[in-house]
Protein 1
Amino acid sequence: MPDLDRQIDELFQLPLAEFTSARNALAKTVRGADATRVRTLGKPTVVAWAINQTYWRARHTFERLMKAGERLRAAQIGALTGKAADLREAGEAHRKALADVVKEAERIASEAGSHPSPDALTRTFEALSLAKDRPEHPGRLADALQPAGFEALAGVRPTVRLKPDATPAKKEPDRRAIEEEKKRQREIKKAEAALARAKAKMRLAEAALKRTQDRS
């Protein structure tokens, strides 16, 4: 790792009250693009700082959540595409890992005299763990994030399970076929609309995560 990256990582591990002065001091030791890069590093919010400290000081708990998020995302994709997936088990494992990492972040913050919102911690950890791509520099978060919901749906076309066509009744077979076709079309449109909403939420969350990464 380049020396400047190591120094930036160390900067994000400092007590929150020391961040700004340490960042400004570091900026004076470098020139050109490196100096601009350091000067534009955003001071983390209390929530972001607590999450960063969890990454640096409780890596096992942090990574357990990230792996649980990956498994849940894979299960969501499997369920959506009609493959066998234990979505309930993956969801429960993710909820447990999420609760544990939030508790750890609260403990670390409390020891430093900070009290971040548990809800904001939960939302941000959830967004990080369910994002399609992991941040390039974990441990350098500058602001809280909002989860997009079912990020696992990104780029996935749902498989709509339909009941086999019933044997047409002897009376008015054409009307029966027309009604069945209308029903199929409504189910397909409903599934595609749900997917579009999930994709839109995912894009918002990933855009927010990218802005945070750009600032760091």
Protein 2
Amino acid sequence: MKNFYILTDAINYIEENLCNEIKLEDVANACYSSLSGLKKLFAYTFNMGLREYITKRRMTHAAHDLLNSELSITEISLKYQYNSPEVFTRAFFKIWGSTPSAFKKQWRFTGILPKIMLDFDGCKNEGGLIMSRKRLDLSELYDLLKSRTNSYVLCFDMINMMTINDAYGRDAGDKAIVECLRRIDSLTDDSCILFRIGGDEFALVTNLTDIKAVEELAAKIIELNGQPFIYNNIEIPIGMRVG
């Protein structure tokens, strides 16, 4: 139970300060934990570092601002505590594999890492630690589904995600996720809205009511299965299942 409150307070503090300077020590103080203890708990629970989570949440919001606001790249850089557009661009490229300028022209999807939510009712004991079930904040998805009750939703699951992580490292796995999202995003129009609903699981809410049209869209995306993406000059084939 203590771990649940520590992580919940840490996540809430980060969310409230994405546009402010965030010192890791301040996050630890906000949840009444030592910094070393918080880092270990965060990495154990979420399989990512505390700083990495902050960066990915900022880049999720920054991507949204790029597509949905009149803010310039410089203004977005400063908003999320990057002292220059160059530093921001490097951080953005590391997450998205694209510069902010190119992203504005090529993407519609922005939710690379929705806020992580913790469910205390799903707590379980792992190695003496009481851990809660984690999930992503999908409130926007649920609201959309209420308004598109007669439309089809395509659900995607990456193939061999763990194999990529084990063979090439988690950074390669992250790049594979972005590439899968890019493929889906590039083959749909503005009426389709894409969500990341799990580590390597995605939901595409269409505005289609004809099953044949949905099957054609799914087939067009799945036709790309087996095509590789490049990671450190290595071609890594990726694919997805769809339902």
Protein 3
Amino acid sequence: MVTAVGIITNLLSQNLQFKKVLSPGAGRVWRLNRKAVTAGILLRINRHIAHSTPSPSEVEKIIHDILDVIVLHVRDHQGNFKEDRKRVFANLLIEDGAELVVVARDSVSMQSSQYKRATPTRYAKETMLCGRAIASRQALSVGDLVRSYPEGPKNKPYRSIFAVPLFSAQNDTQDAPYGALSIDCSEPYFFESFAPGQAESDLENSLQPYIQLITLALETLVSTDRRVILAQLTQVPASVPIQGGHS
């Protein structure tokens, strides 16, 4: 019995991946990759600021890369390490009056045949969790979309949502969000814990560097005017049909 216990203990101690799964939030699995990609993004932003005005496609690529890093960060933070379960998605939405416009998504949402979603897409702000997050000026989550919004579409590739309002760096009082970051997951209650609000608060705090990076990219490479940001990132007329849904 002692020998068997010793063997099992030794195997577990050598299995780093298993230990990380038992300790979600450790954030180590893709840490070096995130650091390298983030450093590259900052370098590209600095080069554009110093030497050239980026094209719309170059700005879009930078935003997509930031959203991809956010997906890795969230999966790391929540202990979602299985490569065959890439079911976390990140979306950037910009406010446009009574609407929210999805102007960018992560690579899986843009390219995967299984999870692909249209961009740009307009939604009525009042129907969305992101709209509530913007109105309350705080991060909000939905544990089970089907239960919380039974009247909503049933074909969404996600069950839980985490919405974080985005504030302009030009606004010291931080009372006027210009948009929101929506992070979706196909698993219900992915962003919640037994301590009300604790998991959401921890995740929001850990995301702050990437959230500020989005704002930095938009305001230094495009404009501080959300109308200009919308025009450049959507490249479509403002009359795009409004969709129903939550993200």
Protein 4
Amino acid sequence: MSERGLRISGLRVAVEGKEILKGIDLVVEPGRVAALMGPNGSGKSTLAFTMSGHPKYEVLGGSVTLDGEEILGQAPDKRARAGLFLSFQYPAAIPGVSVANFIRSARMAVKPGDLPPKQFRQLVFDKLDTLDMDPAFLGRYVNDGFSGGEKKRLEMLQLAILQPKYAVLDETDSGLDVDALQAVGTSVNALRASDEGKDTGFLIITHYPRILAHVPADVVHIMMDGRIVKTGGPELANEIEREGYDRIREEVAGGVA
């Protein structure tokens, strides 16, 4: 039986000939939340883009397995069908494509033919209710004229509809005001409490610890200069909130971490 989890082992990645990730080891377990924190430029988003299969990111070594299946080298759509969901900092707008058609197409691409139209429609309205979203949202064009909070809510709806095994949320809190951040946190927790989402593993990639006040992490990793330099419990995020990243830098420089 294969070992469950989203497992990143010895991952080294270069962009335009420059090595950015220098041997990342990280595990996201089913039903648990892992946080990856670090200052700007530490390589956090490079990790997310690499897992998505972006062609700009060259894998120099290591592996990424999803419940024992190697996904590096697979096409992005195959990674999604394997159960990987990625939410990015700046979702693209798609004028002319309604939210309803977009999420239907996404579901069909990931889980083709698994639900007849009537059951899919019921699923959509059930998830809108779970996320406390107005059904009028479905008639709008994807991210066209959306506020930052609305873009993130749409990603939470996609997450709820696609029902992945593992979700990577890259800088989900970026640009959100307090109310929007709380709404996103409420959405993630509602999904985790549902029958379909209780076993979903989350990797929350963030610069600031504020989202972790709404979605508590089971484990926190700190990344600097393409390496994970420290791992701890939720208290590590609180430490960053109090003291910033300077003390971690000092620990690394002194060989303490």
